[in-house]
Amino acid sequence: MDLARFDCHPDDGASQERCEARKCCWRLPMQQGNLTEKHRTNFQDISVPWCYYPSDFPTYSIVSNETTDFGQRIRIVKSQTTFMPNDILDLTVDLIYETQQRFRIRIYDSVNKRFEVPLNVPVVEKKADMTDYEVKVAQKPFAILVTRKSTGVTLFDSSLSPLIFADQFIQISTRLSSPLLYGFGEHTQPLLINITNEWKRLTFWTRDIGVRPDTNLYGVHPFHINLELNKTGQTNVHGQFILNANAMDVNLQPLPALTYITIGGIIDLYVFTGPTVQNVIQQYWDVIGKPLMPPYWTLGFHLCRWGYGTIENLTEVMQRMHDADFPVDIQWTDIDTMDSHLDFTYDNKTFHGLPELIRTMKAEGKHYVNIIDPGISSTQPPGTYPPYDEGLKQGIFITKYNSTEPIVGEVWPGPTVFPDFTNPKTVEWWTKLLGAYHEIIPVDGMWIDMNEPSNFVDGSHEGCTTNSLDNPPFTPHVYGGNITAKTLCTSAQQYLSSHYNLHSMYGYFEAKATNAALRTILKKRPFVLSRSTFAGSGHYTTHWSGDNTASFTDLYQSIPTILNYNIFGMTFSGAEICGFNGDTTEELCTKWMVLGAFYPFMRNHNAIGAKAQDPAVFSWEAQQIMKQALFMRYSLLPYWYTLFFKASTISTTVIEPLFFEYPNDENTYNIDRQFLVGPAILVSPNLVSNSSIVHAYVPQDVWYEFPSGIQITTVGQYVDFDTPIQKINVHIRGGFIIPMQIPGPNLVIGRGNPFVLLVALSQSGNASGSLFWDDGDSMGMLQVFISWTGKQYAVII
């Protein structure tokens, strides 16, 4: 059967001769017999493989299986090497029964120590009871089968395709429970990955590239959720996470099945048994770390642009926003405020008086955030630029292969070197620099950009080596075709390992270091915004979707993107409102400001050379619509803040797809043009140009229009809502109490304003809710948590 073929030539350029040299089968699929080679090598849209594994392909068998305190330790061997160099013939398999809902599989070299991802995950030494899942192991060929006890549904099954474990090519496949998947980031794609009739490849390797489909983007999150469809009407859910930081392809096929192919490390795979989607997310976040609790002031409206150019232009925009009566809680600046693009500087000519301006803002209850890139200029006169001079003295920069000299790339200031944030000395150096900078520019948070890490040349100014770290025998299908494209040579050396192993964690370690530095400097809850992320980054940083475009396509795409970020544990996330690249329009920016008012992180930011898009630049009519959206956001911030508290303590998402709350309603599985804020607020935005109708799904439940309080009578089906541009489609779910507050001019001034409870009764006349409240930025979170439940309420709007 064509759907059961597993690709024996995942690298491009397959031919019958090459295939058979690998001892694999070559046959064109029946329905694709007239396809040309170009169809086989398309970047992401893979098809039925022409070269595939035979049933007798050499693989491993068990030679010993011992019971341990954590579960089982199995030794597997094979006698024949396969087609990749440096095949490892002797492996150890640890089956770790970590909790009743979490099972871990570790496969590694029995003899030689290999790189393992330096993420602080739980270490479990005592086997848990297997109440939810059952594990079986096949001896020859070796395979692992994990099933759900209650239903018999397969959660993991590696018997479909040979396990291959070479030094720089590791492959393991598993059957999926259904072709309906969610997750696998960071990619621009619909929320639902439906492979019912589709073969698909997803590539993982952090890359500085503008938002686009079918491309490896800024972050790496190899976690997915799989729906388990059955005839009982009760949909269970499970998840998988492969803890691997090397460049990787994940091939999906409509059998349904998936194949992980990575070029380093070990197999370290978690199975989360749920059975609800929120259970799976809690189980995943227990491994990678819970999301951060943001300072309260960061929930306000953020305004930035690359290209203010002068302090006069910056103050003109600030005054324009003030005169138009818009709240701006956080003003940002981009790299154009730097002196010659040098980190930890500001241009005292074009931005003279910037420190005084920031102190004036702070006295008015506002906040300021600035940008820092990791690339440190290496060409300033000796003794004139402390970040380089001190870093060189301390030896904290990433070095060339087999050398103590820093590797030199190029970013905005010209030739640059790159701090190694895996080195403890680098964290001390970074903290000292940020502290000195803060004395001059009193920032309230830091924006760390270009940290994939980005490089304007491939590898370095001197090129890269010819060894296998820079030229592996197999290269996943990364954008640019090479793992050194527009980043550092992967042979470069870091404190913990080679850049080959640590590349995709660069942003993770920089965010962790910046978070720690700000805690030390500010003595408050830190705010960090990072472009590049890895699994667990949400514990340290906020994230945004990067360089999007001013288009209605990108307006829509922001919704599934941010929903996925929440799944990955980055609950405080957003997209560039009104678009980063290109000129926006009044209609697009108005609709985007309305949608953005329901992003967890709300920032309007655009690129140099584009037209101004701060809200005050548009017509009076557009401004009123934007103000209405901002007023709605600010009124609901106590509810938002409570959601962030719950995310950081009990691992619930802040925004979520509809299927999270209605998993047995198949109509919700593919909805990504609407979303829920927490479990109680349904947002159905207008995402189409020149349209005043929103075709929205209203789940079977009690819903009230907000803010009118009118109950929706048509539920459990799609409804065409009349939505002129001034209308905001927001509905409150019955059974919930929403804490609200009357907004002030900004969040600092408005902290003491009166609260309001919005009570939306369920069909049975009940409602419940809660409020978390503290001083807003203490690290210890001096807090009050209040919950309400009962029947004796009126609907307060």
Automatic annotation (TrEMBL):
Residues 1-55 form the P-type domain. The keyword Ribosomal protein does not apply. PROSITE patterns: GLYCOSYL_HYDROL_F31_1, P_TREFOIL_1, P_TREFOIL_2. One of its GO terms (biological process) is carbohydrate metabolic process. Signal peptide: none annotated. Transmembrane segments: none annotated. Coiled coil: none annotated. Keywords: Disulfide bond, Glycoprotein, Glycosidase, Hydrolase, Membrane. It comes from the Eukaryota. Pfam families: Glyco_hydro_31_2nd, Glyco_hydro_31_3rd, Trefoil. One of its GO terms (cellular component) is endomembrane system. Its main location: membrane. It is found in: Endomembrane system. GO terms for molecular function: alpha-1,4-glucosidase activity; carbohydrate binding. Belongs to the glycosyl hydrolase 31 family. This is P-type domain-containing protein. It comes from Rotaria sordida.
